[in-house]
Amino acid sequence: MRTPVETGGRFTFANWEESPVGAVDAVPRLAHARVNNAFTGGIAAADTACAYTIAYVGENVGSYSGMELVSGSLDGRKGSFVLEERGSFDAGGTVCRFEVVPGSGTGDLTGLTGSGGFTYRHGDTSVAYTFTYEMAN
């Protein structure tokens, strides 16, 4: 039987590029965003690639979903994997849950499953995350 491992750390984000889908001033409205993150701690990845679809239901209020390609290491095991992310946001910040896309682990991370999350408050320069995972091998 596999034993879940809990890990965590922090990440910073950069290069937020958001583009509207449809009318810019409509509510509700959609947007796409591309973001790069740098993870430290249990997940070590200098430059992830994220793609989000955002639904604004008010001024600075809404939800989003997306995918993040993480290439680096997890507690010293090298490889890559994809996180599927779902979150909500308001004027105070963002709450997000994420899960490893089944079958996306490569290298030493082949067989990776897991989930985690984070809470970001506007103004934070880095964000704490938690991640619980298991390895098939």
TrEMBL record:
InterPro entries: DUF3224, SO1590-like_sf. It holds the Pfam family DUF3224. SUPFAM superfamilies: SO1590-like (SSF159238). It comes from the Bacteria. This is DUF3224 domain-containing protein. It comes from Streptomyces venezuelae.
